[in-house]
Amino acid sequence: MLIDGYAPGPLFAAEALLDRPGFWPHHLLGLCHATAAATTDTEPPQPEWFGADGADTDALAEELEDDRAWPVFTVAFAGGHALLVVYRNQDGARGVEHLLVHPEWSRPELVTATDDPRYGPGLSWPELTRIVDAPPPAGPGVLAPEARLLLLLPALAAAPRHVAAATARVARALLAVGAPPATAPATAARLLRATRTDPGHDPDALSPLSGGTPAPAGAAPRSALLRTVSLAPSAHRALARALAGQPRTP
């Protein structure tokens, strides 16, 4: 698998791993740990919150973190755009990157990298859900809305405005991938509390991949992602329409 303009890496389409026991705790427990560290939540995060056990999670981690094969999960959405979730298994610089791509672009735009600290503009809750709810009718990649939502959740940059509705939606997604009904609502709340609301998060910060530039002083408030991507005007407008859920104009 190749990503135009992306640094070389042994990439492979990894959607088949989504159904393996242990995938979801491996992908999301880091958010729960972040919540526990930042709040008074004293209960340690458990793989069982996601319907798996520690042995399954550890076994799959060996595949997900193999530096000889970097898993990539494709979440395609409107206008030919896609978000790629890349497990960057680079020795000494491991992390998960959410990359925005389009067939007409020469390189990807970085949405989020889950290094410590995380960087990149991230997604707002409305942007995330519009991407989740706009799968292509067919083709490669992840089509199930529940899996799309959970894959992209680490890219969420700010708490949703309507927390109760967002928590209920994340809980339904967790149930769909095997989380126990008794713990799914609390796990969903923990995941959403892990969004980057810290003062150090600068949505205009430059990233190594995006090449974007900060919005000029006094610019009208817009999507943090749209403010940082470096695209031709027509590509920028097309992305804005896709993120806003608007149909393509003639």
Shape: globular
Radius of gyration: 17 Å
Topology as H/E string?
EHHEEEEHHHHHH
- How many strand units? 5
Give an overview of the whole structure:
- By secondary structure, the chain is an alpha+beta fold.
- It has helices spanning 23-38, 54-64, 125-132, 145-152, 163-176, 184-193, 224-228, 233-244, and strands at residues 11-13, 70-76, 82-88, 95-101, 109-113.
- The protein has one domain.
- The protein has a 5-stranded mixed beta sheet with strand order 1-2-3-4-5.
- Helix 1 (23-38) packs across helix 6 and helix 4 (145-152) crosses helix 5.
- Residues 197-221 have low confidence and may be disordered.
Topology:
Layout: E1 11-13, H1 23-38, H2 54-64, E2 70-76, E3 82-88, E4 95-101, E5 109-113, H3 125-132, H4 145-152, H5 163-176, H6 184-193, H7 224-228, H8 233-244
Helix pairs in contact: 1-2, 1-6, 3-4, 4-5, 5-6
Biased composition (Low complexity): 207-222
Region (Disordered): 196-222
